[in-house]
Amino acid sequence: VLAAHKAAVPITIHCVAGSGTLTVADSETSLPLKPGVLVTLEPGVVHEIVATAAVSVLLTQFTN
Predict the structure, then answer these.
(1) Which of these, 46, 64, 54, lies nearest to 16 by C-alpha position?
(2) Cys-Cys link to 18, which of 4, 23, 41, 54 (CB 3.0-4.6 A)?
């Protein structure tokens, strides 16, 4: 589990292996993560990831 948190800058979360669920707290949306899924989040959006056994993600932060 990657506990609920937020990023100060825009981010992308790209699932590269395994599976899990990404939950976005403000909208109560849950998205399945599997290889190839790419999600974008604006700054300040509270989210968490729960792995199904294991999940590997590539996080990209967009900074000035």
Answers:
(1) 54
(2) 54
Residue whose C-alpha is closest to residue 9's, from 46, 36, 40, 42? 42
Structural contact between residues 34 and 55, judged by C-beta atoms closer than 8 angstroms: no
| Band (28; pLDDT cuts 50, 70, 90) | confident
The DSSP-derived string for 33-59 is: E-TT-EEEE-TT--EEEEEEEEEEEEE
What is the share, in percent, of the chain residues with pLDDT greater than 90? 89
CB 61 within 8 A of CB 11: yes
Q: Which amino acid is located at 29 in the chain?
A: T
- Residues 20, 26, 29, CA angle at the centre, nearest 5°? 40
Assess whether pLDDT exceeds 90 at residue 29: no
